[in-house]
Automatic annotation (TrEMBL):
The lineage of its organism: Bacteria, Bacillati, Actinomycetota, Actinomycetes, Kitasatosporales. Keywords: Biotin, Ligase. It is an enzyme of class 6 (ligase). This is biotin--[biotin carboxyl-carrier protein] ligase. NCBIfam families: birA_ligase (TIGR00121). The keyword Phosphoprotein does not apply. GO terms for molecular function: ligase activity. Its EC number is 6.3.4.15. Residues 1-22 have a biased composition (Basic and acidic residues). Residues 1-24 are annotated as: Disordered. InterPro entries: aa-tRNA-synth_II/BPL/LPL, Biotin_CoA_COase_ligase, BPL_C, BPL_LPL_catalytic. Residues 39-219 form the BPL/LPL catalytic domain.
Amino acid sequence: MTPRDSSDSPDSPRNRWSDLDRPPLSSTALRRGLVRDGGLWRQVDVVQRTGSTNSDLVARAAEGDLAEGVVLVAEEQSAARGRLDRQWTAPARSGLFFSVLLRPAEVPVPRWGWLPLLTGVAVATGLSRVAGVDTALKWPNDLLVTVGDEERKAGGILAERAGDDGVVIGVGINVSLRADELPVPRAGSLALAGAVNTDRDPLLRGVLRSLEDWYGRWRGAGGDPAASGLQETYAAGCATLGRMVRAELPGDRSLVGEAVAVDGDGRLVLATGAGVQEPVGAGDIVHLRLA
């Protein structure tokens, strides 16, 4: 079932022009700019409000043969989730909240773990081009910006399986969030980081075009992160590398060490005080200090 598209309707539960600094997105304009013959993006839907674009798109994929390249965008989410089921909250139209459906049939499933990292590279690249903001990636899925002299999280990525052959990737980016709207003091936004452009339409187009480009390279290389250039590019933009970090691992374990590499499986490699290099494939990473 296709969600009701309210982005172009003047009769919404809320006054869609209540904040002139945050105009609504137009699904018609986005489709015109992104959907093309031979391209990745086949359908772009914008809904006024939903619980989670990821949950909605996973459910739609389960209902039938939903094609790769569907994009679902929400002006507001009431039950957005990050990694480890953390909540993500933001005022309506203050950011980009969207999910995409991918079906990388040519890529062996063990390499699908690179998709969140690939998305991070694509998002950072697209935002840098359009917003003029220097961004960095915190392994495995956070987007960092600098506000003043502080490193702050401005976005996150969540990947979920959709059946046997699909992956839904959700992206949340704080765009125009003001200081008094931050959910936590160490959050950030593109506006607070000095973005030259906070118009969400060109920002979303830039991010999705960058994602199409990187996904095409990676898929064309059979998911090989080295051959596609993904591994090298991710490492170059990863703020976690070269730092002392604490990895909070499943089973209430933790590991402290210097983050020295991202290996071919997308795992973060830590050099511990015992002189051992240990790969971390899942866990929460806390930046302690520069090495």
